[in-house]
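Much of our argument rests on the idea that a fold can be written as discrete symbols. This step matters because it turns folding into a mapping between discrete strings. The record that follows shows the chain in one-letter code together with its fold in token form.
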Amino acid sequence: METLEEIELCFPQLLNSSCKKLTRPRSEALIIYILMSCVSLLTVVLNLLVIVSISHFRQLHTPTNLLLLSLAVSDFLVGLIVMPFQILLTEPCWLLSDSVCVLYYIFAFITVCASVGNMVLISVDRYVAICDPLHYSTKVTQRRVQSFVVLCWVSSVFYAFMILYDNIKQPGRFNSCYGECVINMLGAVDLVISFIIPISAIIVLYVRVFVVAVSQARSMRSHVVAVKLQRSLTVTVQSSELKAARTLGVVVAVFLMCYCPYYCVSLTGYGIIMGSSINAFTDFLVLITSCLNPVIYAFLYPWFRKSTKFIVTLKILQPRSCEANVLYS
């Protein structure tokens, strides 16, 4: 049998009260640190480009881009704060206080939930733009979008405090020993609110958008008389249909692939325990959506590529650069 001296503890001075220090192969730990650090840096850079672009150029001050800005802010905070703390959770021992552990999860829930909420709002925006274009400008105003963005963030804060109430009330109450960062929550409730409802809304709205877009394209094609023009339009319509289908597929597939493993583990009934390779992997998948969101939503817009060139080449520092034309070639 091993003696206390032979067992490596997180806090040796606490003896039986300390958690055992789980060992991980050095190569595995190195891969985790490098991968998560690179993803964190990339997440910060990509979302910062979106934030600067939409905030600086006046042409981009639209209701739709305000939603993209809110999404980029939440994802930027995930990359700047949540991901680095997630690296600490891959360590065998939690050396910070129980209060810091709970604060980390509160902030993580707020930013991730805000990110998901913004994705739903973007889906609603596109639904109105395609399905009711004549009334879009009256239904989707700058002030109304601002109100929904604020509501999204307030709801995320409220939800984070509600789902983690027991942990906030008594930090560390679910730890079995010193050196753990464990929280407990209602997995079924979180599954419904943070996953089933948002993904259902996104799928329904995007399917509706796709059906209406294809219907409008076919209607236009049926009224074309000239054969040459018809062929040209057919190519355009087919390209539009494929692009719509591809965008829909990417959005839904990325969301499902990143969130399904996390909720499968969450529903097993086990606490979220630091040092667990499974929890580290599922948490990483959820967080990586913050890196993919600017790629999916912003990189599809030509204005983002043009504004990025302005930023990278430092033309943004020139006088009246905010008036630059980034929407048209």
